[in-house]
Design a protein that fits this description.
The complex is a heterodimer of chains A (about 120) and B (about 150). Chain A is α/β, with parallel strands linked by helices and about 120 residues long. Chain A has four helices and five strands; from the N terminus they run ββαβαβαβα. In chain A, β4, α3 and β5 (about 105) form a beta-alpha-beta unit. Helices cover about 35% and strands about 25% of the residues of chain B. The chains are: A alpha/beta (about 120), B alpha+beta (about 150).
Chain lengths: ~120, ~150
Amino acid sequence: MLDDELSVSTRERDGVAIIDLVGDVTTFAEEKINTAYAQATGQGARHILLNFRQNDYINSAGIAILIGIVTEVNRNNQKLAVSGLSQHFQKIFRMVGLAQYADIYQDEEEAVRGFAATAA
Amino acid sequence: MTLQMATSNPFIELSVPSELGYEKIARDAVAAFARRLGCDRERVEDLKTALSEACINAIEHGNASVSGLRVDIQCTGMVDRLMVEVRDYGVRRYPGDMPVVGIDLKLQGLAPRRGMGLMMISQLVDEAGFTENTEGGNRFRLVLYFRRS
């Protein structure tokens, strides 16, 4: 089995919990992404940003993981956004319906401004 | 991997282990082939995702995640299109006629979160579906009509 090629880390910026996802989002990513989300939520995050970087490969198994995150975000009354996706993966997110539940921004700056605008 | 350019239709075939992760290798090889034929960048991205999903279906469903099996991919370039066939060993018949379930039901826990691959494929390429395979196993065909870059 080829191992995963995803690095996940969390940080906070202007009241937004940013989860950086660097690399491939596939079935191998589940534990890392869920752990990062649980960590952010445990610290009281209300605004969650999945910040994608260098994502050459996001497949349906990875999308299923993100659907799980949306489920938790809804349950915890949080707000979710995504940034950094290529045009192709923005199209995929719209195709599968994820864009109905997470605002899509071009980059982190725009996303943080977007969260601030909705909170104002 | 075999590359044949002498015939009128360029043609490659490759065989990868039936293990998750190897679909990425198949995807990259087929993408390089499509680019060589002049397929534009956006269509190559569509093909990469569609082929990955077809390979994952072959690994997880057709070959039922049985170790030691392989997934065979054959690509033929034509004047106006690229045809890709993905074949597995047919441990399980996989007709792929399951109903498409929207994200709303998945979020409500009323449907599995997985199972979006065929829907994605159908929207990313121009033709997709299972074809007759007299050798046994499932054979899934993708056709992409390309705009040359």
